[in-house]
Amino acid sequence: MSKILVVQPHRMLQQAIVLSLFPEHEVQVTEAVPEFLAAKDFDAVIVDAASLQETTGLASQTMRAVQNWQVPMIWIEGSDPSQTPKREKLVLMKRPIAREALQSSLAECLGTSRGSKRNGMLSAQAQEPRGSSKGAADEKKDLVSSAAQDTEFIELVDVVEEGPGRKTRKKQQN
Q1: What does pTM read for this prediction?
Q2: Fold of the domain spanning 2-150
Q3: pLDDT in tens, 141-168
Q4: Among 106, 119, 158, 173, which has the highest number of CB atoms less than 10 A from its own CB?
């Protein structure tokens, strides 16, 4: 059983992530990025950068703290991909997050294998050696586009059509 830290400011999403990882992993939740994180405390960290950007924003101090961690990390990207940390042991995910995608990304982050579809991808730094060329960016784009094609979205819209209402009139008999 691995210990996972989830950085998520929204309580409902905290519960959803905890429930999706529950039996296999011990999950601890925090609403803000801790300044210091020892590698021995957790096996992996999940940071929902998109939610952090919406609520408090990602300060430069927060980004420095994240880049100094030695723990493998899943980074859920927000609208500004330029704020993605530059480090090793990083798995990137895009919203929306599916349960299987999260579990698969976590397995990849921890170094275990899973054979299911996912919308996460390894960062170019984790895939390529330090002396990589322009091909890494093209490969990253290919991974994003193929992952987006594999993802099946379910619309949660219920359309209710109502016909003309029935009007019953009782004629009074005189």
Answers
A1: 0.62
A2: Rossmann fold (3.40.50)
A3: 454 445 455 566 666 666 667 766 555 5
A4: 106
